[in-house]
């Protein structure tokens, strides 16, 4: 019997993203404190983006889920529901970590019905609701 792939809602994706950013923001703040880096400077912003990129690439490349996605029972997969590779996770994560406003705007205007961000399309990934 074929399993039906249900795409995740934008709401679940947003809340999972927010949880991830808050968790990594705590780590980022601790690193800034130890290294005495200005949080409002460019180096602070680049550090946060790099932390998020590494976090999402490792967790989503390993198991398809970040901690936020685990809470909402959603997972990043290939187009047929298969596991993704670390390369795919890195491409998909790059858009979230470094170019999210551009990624979302392109999605909003050009890819709205597919429920894919631009970097999901580039990495040939989708975000689905896990049904098991």
Descriptive overview:
The protein is mainly alpha-helical and 132 residues long. It has one domain (10-129). Helices cover 64% and strands 6% of the residues. The chain has helices spanning 10-35, 42-63, 67-72, 86-98, 100-110, 118-123; strands spanning 74-77, 126-129. Strands 1-2 form a two-stranded antiparallel sheet. It is globular.
Secondary-structure topology with pairs:
Elements: H1 10-35, H2 42-63, H3 67-72, E1 74-77, H4 86-98, H5 100-110, H6 118-123, E2 126-129
Antiparallel strand pairs: 1-2
Helix pairs in contact: 1-2, 2-4
Keywords summarizing the entry:
mainly alpha, 64% helix
The poorly predicted ranges are none
Number of helices: 6
| Biggest sheet layout | 2 strands, antiparallel
Helix content range: 55-70%
Rounded mean pLDDT is 92
Give the strand order, joined by hyphens, for the main sheet.
1-2
Give the N-terminus to C-terminus distance in angstroms. 14 Å
Q: What is the radius of gyration?
A: 15 Å
What is the beta-strand fraction? 5-15%
Give a count of the beta strands, DSSP E runs of length 2 or more: 2
Order of helices and strands: HHHEHHHE
Structural class: mainly alpha
Q: Can you tell me the overall shape?
A: globular
Number of domains: 1
């Amino acid at each position: 019997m074929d399993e039906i792939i249900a795409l995740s809602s934008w709401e679940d994706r947003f809340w999972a993203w927010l949880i991830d950013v808050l968790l990594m923001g705590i780590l980022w703040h601790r690193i800034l404190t130890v290294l005495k880096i200005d949080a409002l400077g460019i180096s602070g912003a680049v550090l946060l983006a790099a932390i998020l990129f590494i976090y999402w690439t490792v967790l989503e490349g390993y198991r398809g889920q970040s901690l936020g996605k685990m809470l909402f029972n959603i997972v990043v997969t290939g187009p047929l529901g298969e596991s993704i590779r670390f390369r795919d996770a890195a491409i998909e994560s790059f858009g979230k970590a470094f170019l999210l406003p551009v990624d979302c705007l392109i999605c909003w205007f050009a890819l709205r019905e597919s429920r894919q961000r631009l970097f999901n399309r580039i990495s040939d990934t989708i975000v689905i609701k896990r049904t098991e």
